[in-house]
Amino acid sequence: MSFARFFAPAAGVPGDRILLPVDEAEHLTRVLRLSTGDRVRVFNGRGAEFEAVVDAADRDGVRLTLGAPCTPAPEPRVAITLAQAALKGDKMDDVVRDAVMIGVAAILPVVTARTEISVAALTRSRRRERWERIAVSSAKQCGRAVVPLIAEPSQFDLHVALSESTFPSPVFVLVEPNMAGGVPLGELDTTTIPARATLVVGPEGGWTADEVHAASALGSLITLGGRTLRADATALVALAALFTKYGEY
Amino acid sequence: MSFARFFAPAAGVPGDRILLPVDEAEHLTRVLRLSTGDRVRVFNGRGAEFEAVVDAADRDGVRLTLGAPCTPAPEPRVAITLAQAALKGDKMDDVVRDAVMIGVAAILPVVTARTEISVAALTRSRRRERWERIAVSSAKQCGRAVVPLIAEPSQFDLHVALSESTFPSPVFVLVEPNMAGGVPLGELDTTTIPARATLVVGPEGGWTADEVHAASALGSLITLGGRTLRADATALVALAALFTKYGEY
Predict the structure, then answer these.
(1) Residue A227: its chain B contacts at CB < 8 A?
(2) Could you tell me which chain B residue has the CA closest to the CA of A104?
(3) pLDDT over 90 for what percent of chain B?
(4) Could you give the CA distance from residue B171 to residue B216 in angstroms, rounded to a whole number?
(5) HSE of A200 in the Cβ direction (CA atoms, 13 Å)?
(6) Which residue of A has its CA nearest to B103?
(7) A174: nearest CA partner in chain B
(8) What is the pLDDT of residues B186-202, one digit of tens each?
(9) Can you tell me the mean pLDDT for A137-155?
(10) Homologous superfamily of A79-245 in CATH?
């Protein structure tokens, strides 16, 4: 039998008595209708997961006592950071959900030359907090005990990003089919599997020539077959391909 | 500059004068507001694409004259058939859209032991026609000139399917992480690239033990990492992984 899973950043060691975050407490009581005495699992977002029992579920919140550690879904061997140009409307929500599901280590929302929303607008609409909630929800569903970092949205400047090591090497920049300089992922040497890597995915309108030029000096320009992928499905396909190349599947 | 693309099954050779299907004519006139003299492209769904000029766009429909052949997005080297258990609600729509986008050759909607909708209900609600429209729409967007076959939904019986060769070999049946008998895709020998292959993906509730037993005698049971994938994203991830293994990317 499988137990409902909840995100509890306070979870540390067996025996801890912890309070669930408000959102998680609502999920436990209102959606799943669990209460005192019920058994669940909690994960702390940093890789640890525990059995737990509900001690109290009332207007003061949900209190749990942690039991034995248990084994969450494994993390991929390669910690991939996804730098994704913010997409229009709800599409970025789907990218965050899917990237967490497939196993990214971190998501850096970036604003490129052709991105149709500004850093200021993303910040004002508190989009990062929204994506963090989506990341928690996706981690709950896919079985991970890690909630990937969602960085504050930032202006895309590959030179700055690399000099500050916010983009772990090797860096792969996905470009449109037939773009000059782009090579199929399969032609890259992936016999050495790195500990970390970065995948950079552009916006609906693609990259400018200047951006591609900058990127080509700092990482590999890769293509993914000759068909045009929907912007909100591109990262998932590219991540699946990269994980496959790195022997994850 | 890129031209709008329309699906015209009647398109045969340069010089042909053809009538667009009603749905496509509406797209041309009402959505894109094109009319007499405008240049477009048409593809016939069987791999051929042509330049074309609108001769007339009125209440009798849209008539075009075909010009020179042009090159659509390339088809994958391996023609993959996706046998997908019908999913609930609109989720199957997304699977069809994404599978066409990534490049499948055909989609066989199947009803398994744990599929929550019957063949009769799928037929009564004319779901196949809906999926065919979605396949056309996706082909238009991704640049393919091939509209994959969508088969009539059928009861899943792997023995019958294989004896009748409706599932081209080799057959890969995706099973949940940690299921006995499942091997990571990476452990399969894919040095020989076949002309065709079949990927079989189950429903939200997974396979029964009987189904897995039958499948294991007839194809490879494969897993895709340890994280649980959303049912409506599973086929896309598996197809991306399989195309990567076969050197498509």
Answers:
(1) 73-74, 101-103, 142-144
(2) B227
(3) 80
(4) 10
(5) 29
(6) A227
(7) B249
(8) 888 888 999 999 999 99
(9) 96
(10) SPOUT methyltransferase, trefoil knot domain (3.40.1280.10)
Please, where in chain B does CATH 2.40.240.20 lie? 5-70
B135-150 per-position pLDDT tens digit:
999 999 999 999 999 9
N-terminal to C-terminal alpha carbon distance within chain A: 26
Segment 157-216 of chain A within 8 Å of chain B by CB: 177, 184-186
Q: Which of A73, A101, A245 sits opposite B244 (nearest CB)?
A: A245
Task: Please say if the pLDDT value at position A17 is more than 70.
Answer: yes
Place of tokens 């010089």: B15
- Domain(s) labelled CATH 3.40.1280.10 in chain B stretch across 79-245
With an 8 Å Cβ cutoff, are B101 and A177 in contact?
no
Instruction: Please state the separation of Cα A130 from the chain's center in Å.
Output: 13
Question: Using CA atoms, how far apart are residues B220 and B199, in angstroms rounded to an integer?
Answer: 10
Burial class of residue A74, CB neighbours in 10 A (0-12, 13-18, 19+): middle
Mean pLDDT (chain A) is: 93
DSSP B45: B
pLDDT at B217 over 90: no
- Mean pLDDT calculated for residue range A38-65: 96
Phi/psi for A28 (5° steps) reads -65, -45
Strands in B17-19's sheet, in edge-to-edge order, are B5-7, B39-43, B49-58, B61-70, B17-19
Chain A residues touching residue B240 (CB < 8 angstroms)? 236-237, 240-241, 244
Q: Which fold has domain B5-70?
A: Ribosomal Protein L25; Chain P (2.40.240)
DSSP secondary structure letter of residue B7? E
Q: Which residues of A touch B236 (CB under 8 A)?
A: 233, 236-237, 240
**CA dihedral over A104, A110, A115, A119, signed as positive or negative:** positive
